[in-house]
Amino acid sequence: MTVQDIRAFNRFYTNVIGALDYSRQLYAPYTLTESRVLYELAHSPRTDAADLRGELSLDAGYLSRILNKFEQDGLIERTPSRRDPRRRRVTLTARGRETAALLAERADESVGALLATVPPADRPRLAEAMRTVRGLLSDGRPPRREDVLLREPGPGDLGWIVQRNAALYTAEHGFNADYEGLVARIVADFAEDHDPHLERVWIAELDGRPVGCVMCVRDEAPGTARLRLLLVEPDARGLGIGDRLVSAVIDFARGVGYRDLVLWTNDILASARHIYQRHGFVLVAEKPHRSFGKDLVGQDWRLDLHATQE
Question: Per DSSP, what are the bridge partners of residue 78?
Fold first, then answer.
């Protein structure tokens, strides 16, 4: 391996990525950097200018100009943060969410077209090669929060949610197959009939593999959403993935107009409960029950989305 080998690969990779944005239509009317800012606003729970600068390594003046443009275009709103008055909270408007979704859809279609040129039998090799490059050039550093991608589910991901819930809850809490049946029904109901404008699933991805998930679905109570099936793989814990997934649900539920967000859990799930508490959920009821082969205490938690808006 020589310097010239790496430079040759860099030229090849740059040309491939450049071809995806032919005639600058992929992100039009925005630049690639502007699209990256929109993406972060749509997917990251940390949404003030300081956090964006850190996430994207952008100059403060450059980012300020981008945000000014977005505000003029009606894509964002900037309000003081309750936690730190020196900071300005940046949130996408309805138009901003639509624009971010459109750019993401274009990017997915473009990359999908590129992937279609790779024979299916060779795609596992390609994925492994990409993971190898990232691993070798990361200088052995452990994964960081920034390495985790929150995305919509792809083919097979809903099945992964069922399988991993069943395996982890059996290994960590001794749940029996009844729990797998419950998760399978929840996932099947979503797959067969859901409103994409009001219900959503997030997959947390690290190094090309799913490491977490959560769902937001409509509750029976009017104006209420329900958070379901929060899960983070053991080897990916400590990266703030659970917090990011819960924040994504809260931001989505608030953005589409829900008034309340509720969830049901069990008191033995201490780590998840602490996440809910950090985000402002309040315990409203608890009741002993026997389910999944265990004696448990079920808990209902609620978040007033209007009261917690910053």
Answer: 90
Q: Are strands 148-151 and 260-266 parallel, antiparallel or unpaired?
A: unpaired
Q: Look up residue 56 and give its two tokens.
A: 């994207």
pTM of the model: 0.63
Contact 302, 260 (CB under 8 A): yes
Residue 203 and residue 72: Cα distance in Å, rounded? 32
Q: Which two tokens stand for residue 134?
A: 């990232």
- Exposed / middle / buried, residue 21 (Cβ in 10 Å: 0-12, 13-18, 19+): middle
Q: Are 262 and 303 in contact (CB under 8 A)?
A: yes
Q: What six digits make up the tokens of 161? A: 């949610």
pLDDT in tens, 178-207: 999 999 999 999 999 999 899 999 999 987
Give the HSE-up count for residue 74: Cα atoms under 13 Å, Cβ half-sphere: 4
* Amino acid identity, position 107: A
